[in-house]
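User: Structure please.
Assistant: Input sequence and predicted structure:
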Amino acid sequence: MILITGATGTVGSEVVKALLPAQAGHLRVLTRNPDAVFPDGAQKVVADLADSDLAPVLDGVHAVFSITDGLHIAAHDRRIAAAAQRAGVQRIVKLSVRNVGHDGTDPITTLHRAGEEAIRDSGLAWTFLRPTAFMSNALNWAGMIAADQVVYAPFAAGRAAVVDPADIAAVAAACLTQDGHFRRVYELTGPEPLSAADQVSLLGEVLWRDLRYVETDPADMVAQMVSYGMPEEQAQAVVELFGSTLEPYNAKPTDDVTAVTGRPARSFTDWAKAHRGAFPSPEAIQDAATIEDSR
C-alpha cells in the first residue's frame, strides 16, 4: 500500500493520477476534508497530521509520499516519520524545496530542511524531491488576466526554471514504486529559466491575448493572500520563498526529471496549452454573469 499525504493539493492530486490505474486498490490518500472526492482505486482516509492517530493510517503501508505545508512542515514531517518507522514502512519520499540545497534561510525552506533531517534521523529509506517554483502558480493570475489583461506580481528581476507539477508527480511515482532512488535528492526544474514577464508573454501567445506584466511590491502580494484567508505570517513566508527567484541557482535547469522519467521536462508553453481553459476571457466571464443574472 502507498500512502499519499496532502492528496488534494497541487502536487498530491497529480501523484494520485500518476499512480492510477496501475496502483488501484493499493493506494491510500490522506485528507482532512471528509467531502474530498478521489478517483476510483484510491482509498480515502480522513485524518490530520497534526493530532490524529497515524497508526491506522499507516497500517499495511510500505511507501509514503509526504507532502507537508504551511508553518507546521517540520512538525508534521517528524510525526509522520516517527509513525512510519513504528509501522514498518519501507520507504518515504518527501516533497521539499530547491532552496534547501542552496543555503536558503527563508522560513519555509528552514522548515523543510528540519523536516528532511527528521526523516533522515528516522532510519527510513528516503528520497527528497526539491522542485523550484511551480508553473501552476500562474493560475493565481487568472482573475487579473480576465479583469484587465494585466498581471501584477513582485520580483520582476527574478528568474526560475519553473516546473510542471505533473513532472514532479511522475518523478514521485517512480520513486515510490521503483528501486534505485534511496538516499537520492532530485532538484526538479523545467527546461528554461523564465521571469514573471516571460511567463506572462508565453501565456499571451497561448491565449492569443495581449497581456502585460507590472511589478508590484511584495507587500501587495502578502495583502492579497491574507484577503483570501491565509494567515499573515504564512503569507509573508510564502512571499519570502517566492523571492528566492532572485537567487541565480533557481534559474539553472537540471536534467533530474529526464534522469528519473526518461523523457524531457515539459515547457511552460506545454503547461499553458494544457491549462488554457483555466484562463477565461473577459467576454466569457461577462457571458457567464449575464446567464447567471437571467436565472
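The radius of gyration is 20 Å.
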